[in-house]
Give the backbone structure.
Amino acid sequence: MRRWSTLALPAGALAAFALAGCAPESELAPGGRIDFQKIIATAKRTVYPALVFVKPIRETFGSGERQRAEVFGSGVIISADGYVVSNNHVCEKAIEVHCVLGDREQVPATVIGLDPETDLALLKLKVDPNRGPLPTAAFGDSDKVEAGQFVMALGSPFGFTRSISLGIISNTRRYIGFTTQYRYNLWLQTDAAINPGNSGGPLVDTAGRVIGINTLGSGVAQNIGFAIPSNVVSDVIRRLKATAAKTKPDQWPVKVSRAYTGLQLQALNDFKTNTFSDSKRGVLIQSVDAGSPAAAGGATDGDILLSVNGREIDGLYVENLPMLRVLLADLALDKPSEFLVARPTSAGAGKEPPEAYAGKLGGRKVLTLGIQPVSRGKFEGEDYDCRRWNMTVKEITKFSNPGLYFLQPTGGVFVQGVRSRGNATDAGLHRNDIVLKIDRWDVKTIADVRKAYEKLVQDTKRVDKKALVTIKRGGFLDWKALSWEKDYLQED
């Protein structure tokens, strides 16, 4: 799993029996206590047959050259015709995927869609059409999950196929979207062991229903794991399926389409940053991206967003933010949306607030703004291997590389990795250098880098195998003399 690792639960972390109240009568032992042996047997009987061991072969670029590596993860079959849910971080950049089914048959799979912002992936198994219906698992309603109820995490930890761990739901509305990723949903927190390899496997309730997809575990704290709620999973999978149905297979994997306004939101009462607003309604507009639709529509930092197209906004706490981001992401792209905002009276005149907001805006005036959203575009940019130069480059996007985008707001290309022993290293190029020019070619896209690379390296008439590379590092311009006289790959 990416960014997180986890520790297994200590032996004996759960008692063998607990008071009744969250299990069917058939699972009660004498005395009205839960019989966990029966609960585990029910989960195995209903979900185990639909559990798959996912083995993608992925391309990686971080080392300074394109490499292939096999990784391990988990998934669950959700339809009899072979659709499988897993994690984006398991299946992204996969050039080949194989899945081991419950009967230990290994079959290939196609990556239909990916959503890095919720970390979900949709696969389709390539099974023999004469095989018959595949075993499936059913989703439960994650909105009805309660803290304290017992759950089981199924998956393939550390590449060991098919395991089950038992725990409880610790929190049903955990917010971890403080970075640019994982901002469109809350999480189910559990103390059931979620280890590397469990990623993409189902989190199951005592009735054998999938209430989440296991995704993250923490190696810092004990007994903390996170699962994507099943209602979020169902919505994202529905969107991916709908997009894939309208797309040719050679354009798969598809992505979730979202609208972009340029508004960065903050809860009115943010305990993490100790920021508290005197407004009791709406959500704080923390910042407005330069050149964004919101900026063009007149939104400013510090405004309180009260409603969008007549729908009132509740952003009192951070747990409300994912739902509001989904609301903005689902706005129509073909017409302006009406944003009602509150602004300090010193910033200019505005109309009196509607009665619903009277006395709850801290003396602010209310303004109506028309904002025309645009397509959000891709979350992560393309990669390219400048193999002879022993470095890889990547496209800058405002979502996956916000720090570099701040330095280069028009976008561009940056050095993703340099080989420890190679020409780029010899030239003094570093990771995260923004490439502005290679020899006489201006660089704004991956296509520009590809063109410059191919022209220079494949020019057999060129006597000197050198080029001047213009970069931006830490906001300052610099120039590096890149030579490819040595062929480090052959020497190794």
User: Anything to note?
Assistant: The mean pLDDT is 88.
